Amino acid sequence: MSYIDGISMKESKSLDLYDIQGNVCKGYGRYGFPKARYCFLSFQHTHSAREFLALLIEKITTAETWPVSESSDHHRIKPNSTLNLGFTYSGLKKLGLPERSLKGFPVDFTMGMKARSEILGDTGISAPEHWDDIWQQDNVHAWVAINARDQDAIEFEFNALGDLVTQHPDGVRIMSGIKGPNNTILPYQDASAVFENGLPTAKEHFGFTDGIGNPYFEGCGNSMSRLPGRGKLMRDGSWQPLATGEFVLGHVDEAQEYPPAPEPKLLSRNGTYMVYRKLHENVDTFNGYIDNLAKDFDGSRDLLMAKMSGRWPDNGAPLTLAATDEEKETLDAKMASIELRVSEGDKSALIERKELRRQWVDFTFNDDKSGSRCPVGAHIRRTNTRGSLETEHKAFHRPGALVDRRRLMRRGLPYGGIDEAKSDSAEQGIIFMSIGASIERQFEFVQQQWVNYSNDFKLGNDKDPLIGSHDGKLTDKHIIQGCPIKGAKPPFFCTQMPRFVETRGGDYFFIPSISALRMIAEGLIDPS
């Protein structure tokens, strides 16, 4: 096997991208879709719901690759909007799946997110009784997502969906009960990239640059140039794609096994599971806490934020690349110089910029075991440990063996912050969606063991500084490790951390393949 720039040149696993729903392989925001609308359906009558589904299938966006240039292939023009679909366990029951097939789904999915709230840390103000009204009704059967280039395209597709629902009044309805801006109650959840100067950014409402470094798996259809830092870390420092079965059912996973799935195989193959969570951001609380703490912190406000996240808020550069204000200033100057040369037509500067930007994702914590650069409990170090849990030299066959089966394929966008000023009482946050072949092994494990508990990091009960279920107690803390060299600064303790992020609703969904959707619509699921 040969390598170029640390990338395995072994032929990538081929997948039927026309059978896989598009949101499984594509983060739509990266393709120029900064707007989204999520709505939820309730099925009233099985036969009519199946008829509705048969018509909706024709609108669903697949994972087929789009051309780099819209003029390069007139048969594969990127659409103005996308549409994708998933079902809760109760929704699959309502669609009439056989009992034997239903019993093949894993317990985490069949129970649903509300019943797993204690595992997820959805307690106190985040407990289900405080969620949006729609989640109190226990009859959310399907999730429909529209992503689009602009708001006009969102409205067009949503109206078309409404027309289709109207044709099946006895079988399907779009549910209301979602809290919107200015205390409105809506039949949909809008989401949007945060815009600055009329252009979409990768920011969220606390001010962090988000959505960096999603996993790369075999056959996903993305360019191999995106592999370093996103795949699995090998012993020689190279990166290889994660096994397809970590994210798509019916394919071999990192354990060289097929992930557990319901029968028949055509029902599960090329499908996956999705976690949907509405996460409210308490912007006033966060800004107030940071401002107060920054008074005693030996560094800038941005550095303090970076020591919580693991990345600088303005551009997402990892602390492994620039761990102090001085190093960040040098990095910014270097990037500005490269950008100037690019604007002047210097082709070599393009290569330099690409190489520098690669380090935003292609890094490890090998040279930072103590956490003096990126704190051990920082958000990005918890959710993708990048081999840092291998505390004994060559303890495993590859450095990231303990994280490769816990990787999260993140989707979603910020919501709110447009129609009302940002505050704790206003509606703003993140619609978090995670895709994977096992909700329990991937999302739930990370949420329970790495976000809300820190034994694996030798930090006891410390929680994720940004999204952990804090209660403002003295023991709700985050440690910013000091530098171990002589004369260095001592550790800095962030204590009495409040809950910056609250859960406002969500559930677990099964995202079937196009083939499985057709079988469900036609009532042809036969597990015998």
Radius of gyration: 23 Å
Helix content: 25-40%
Poorly predicted runs of 5 or more residues: 1-12
The largest sheet, given as strand count, sense and whether it forms a barrel, is: 5 strands, antiparallel
Put simply, the count of helices is 15
Shape: globular
Helices and strands: which structural class? alpha+beta
The overall average pLDDT, rounded, is 92
Record field, number of beta strands: 19
Distance between the termini: 42 Å
**Strand residue content:** 15-25%
Summed up, what is this model?
This protein has helices spanning 22-25, 46-56, 89-94, 99-102, 107-111, 117-120, 151-166, 265-268, 283-294, 301-309, 325-343, 347-358, 379-383, 439-451, 514-521, and strands spanning 3-4, 7-8, 35-43, 81-87, 142-148, 172-174, 178-179, 185-186, 189-192, 195-196, 199-200, 232-233, 239-240, 272-281, 409-416, 428-436, 478-480, 492-494, 501-511.
